[in-house]
């Protein structure tokens, strides 16, 4: 399964070696991929440094907005949202240094 995965804005891409957009193919697994499993996969495979700035527990840190196909993930079930082929997942950091 291939899921476009985007990391944009507000410095979040700095945690991913400066790469703003990742096109990822997730490995097959018995149960459907959800955002909870996607975040674990991101932590293991994409985060290059300081995962605590992106994740808190099994979710994203406060201040990181998650959009799934341009909709707030709160409307989609957050961690329990089941990913579909060609979903676009966007992480936006709303925290800015000053």
TrEMBL record:
Keyword Cytoplasm applies: yes
Keywords recorded for this protein, A-Z: Cytoplasm, Isopeptide bond, tRNA processing, Ubl conjugation pathway
Gene3D superfamilies per UniProt: 3.10.20.30
The keyword Ion transport is assigned to this record: no
Single GO biological process annotation from the record: tRNA wobble uridine modification
Positions of post-translational 1-thioglycine modification: 98
A GO term from the CC aspect: cytosol
One of the Pfam families matching this protein, by short name: Urm1
Pathway linked to the protein: tRNA modification; 5-methoxycarbonylmethyl-2-thiouridine-tRNA biosynthesis
Location within or outside the cell: Cytoplasm
Cross-link (Glycyl lysine isopeptide (Gly-Lys) (interchain with K-? in acceptor proteins)): 98
Cross-referenced InterPro entries: Beta-grasp_dom_sf, Mopterin_synth/thiamin_S_b, Urm1
Post-translational modification: C-terminal thiocarboxylation occurs in 2 steps, it is first acyl-adenylated (-COAMP) via the hesA/moeB/thiF part of MOCS3, then thiocarboxylated (-COSH) via the rhodanese domain of MOCS3.
Family, as annotated: Belongs to the URM1 family.
PANTHER family: RURM1 PROTEIN
Described function: Acts as a sulfur carrier required for 2-thiolation of mcm(5)S(2)U at tRNA wobble positions of cytosolic tRNA(Lys), tRNA(Glu) and tRNA(Gln). Serves as sulfur donor in tRNA 2-thiolation reaction by being thiocarboxylated (-COSH) at its C-terminus by MOCS3. The sulfur is then transferred to tRNA to form 2-thiolation of mcm(5)S(2)U. Also acts as a ubiquitin-like protein (UBL) that is covalently conjugated via an isopeptide bond to lysine residues of target proteins.
Official protein name in the record: Ubiquitin-related modifier 1
Organism encoding this protein: Falco tinnunculus (Common kestrel)
Gene name for this UniProt entry: URM1
